[in-house]
Amino acid sequence: MDEAGSSASGGGFRPGVDSLDEPPNSRIFLVISKYTPESVLRERFSPFGDIQDIWVVRDKHTKESKGIAFVKFARSSQACRAMEEMHGQCLGPNDTKPIKVFIAQSRSSGSHRDVEDEELTRIFVMIPKSYTEEDLREKFKVYGDIEYCSIIKNKVTGESKGLGYVRYLKPSQAAQAIENCDRSFRAILAEPKNKASESSEQDYYSNMRQEALGHEPRVNMFPFEQSEFSSFDKNDSRGQEAISKRLSVVSRVPFTEEQLFSIFDIVPGLEYCEVQRDPYSNYGHGVVQYFNVASAIYAKYKLHGFQYPPGNRIGVSFIDDGSNATDLLRKMATQMVAAQLASVVWNNPSQQQFMQFGGSSGSQLPQIQTDVVLPSCKKKAPPETPVKERLFIVFNPHPLPLDVLEDIFCRFGNLIEVYLVSGKNVGYAKYADRISANDAIATLHGKILNGVRLKVMLADSPREESNKRQRTY
């Protein structure tokens, strides 16, 4: 559909070309009479929401209307409701031919077909693994009538994977759910069930950016869900790959900047992301940049091949900026493997004594990999010193070893004790001075050390904690 000859009048906000599909499915495509003026379109469609612009497609030479128009709304739910209520209606009392209203296809798509209702009613969500289908239905029924809910489960164990689908009866209801549900659900529209097969997907990724997919190791010696560090074999050709803070992201289906951000913000340190639109293909292309190389490395090896939504794998590769951080990559891999091993041991109380006394040499200081500027080491306060401030520490995705924690938190001075809570990704630090505790919060909160993100905050007093429900994470 040629939109080059479109025109629009009227004041207010007018989105740029790059913003026409933000949010997704917020434009409607109209088949109308050639004699319908823009003022009538604005009058009939404004009750459904905030209209950002109207395009009436015109002939390039005669400037006459082609009987086609686009209306851009501020929200997807507004566009969907306009489609549901105005499709098949007549715009004026003298009109005998009803109009046709569809959700417009994304401009980044190679085709201009109309988006079908089936593609707009099913959403994909991330949920707690404890959720049942009834819990999922109860959470999302406030946005409209639900046709069905389903939870993705492991075929072998039958356990939930923490992913689910919700199918609504109307597109506007699904759009309302995406717009208004808690961001922790990371709700997006689900891929249609009749998309390309897995074999075509593999063909696509075999040629994508001339980068080979990673391979599973023959023997998994550690009880981790993924062996992302198995790729550090000295004969692995990827060991020579240029490393940088910038990543290229390629997807078989288009994605928005918000979706790209929600995926890569899982790894702390995200600086910005940008979607690059290719008018000649249906693929999604984007660039992601982190504040530090360590975060980019972790994101690359954690998210390359990640399915979002299920059935669509994204490809992640480094963008060569002239630097080479292979040594940093190997050091980070070693530290992160050690941290995960420590996490396994700390989740097993019977092994804690080994980790504290037999797992490391007392003559060597623990190594810390981070971009944070830390003070020099200071002596700990005597154990009998009165506690002036307690800090509560949350680790993501797993706790740091105790000797590393002690080395980090003693640098602010007046540290009495730091300890971990058995079986949980949390710990506490006790200080003999409030200024030292506040310095630790200011320096460490939200930062990454040895591949682990820390949340550091003031702990509740023991009396307050006894009156509260136990924290869950």
TrEMBL record:
Return any one Pfam family short name: RRM_1
* Any one of the GO BP annotations: nervous system development
Protein name from the UniProt record: RNA-binding protein 45
What's in the GO CC field? cytoplasm; nucleus
Q: Which gene encodes it?
A: RBM45
Extract the ranges annotated as region (Disordered): 1-20
Domain (RRM) ranges: 26-106, 121-195, 389-461
Q: What does this protein do?
A: RNA-binding protein with binding specificity for poly(C). May play an important role in neural development.
Tell me where in or outside the cell this protein is found: Cytoplasm; Nucleus
MF (Gene Ontology): RNA binding
Entry-linked PROSITE patterns: RRM
Asked whether the keyword Signal is assigned, the reply is no
Q: Which UniProt keywords apply?
A: Cytoplasm, Developmental protein, Differentiation, Isopeptide bond, Neurogenesis, Nucleus, Phosphoprotein, Repeat, RNA-binding, Ubl conjugation
Q: Which InterPro entries match?
A: Nucleotide-bd_a/b_plait_sf (IPR012677), RBD_domain_sf (IPR035979), RBM45_RRM1 (IPR034203), RBM45_RRM2 (IPR034206), RBM45_RRM3 (IPR034207), RBM45_RRM4 (IPR034208), RRM_dom (IPR000504), SLIRP/GR-RBP-like (IPR052462)
Q: Show the Gene3D superfamilies listed in the entry.
A: 3.30.70.330
Main localisation:
cytoplasm
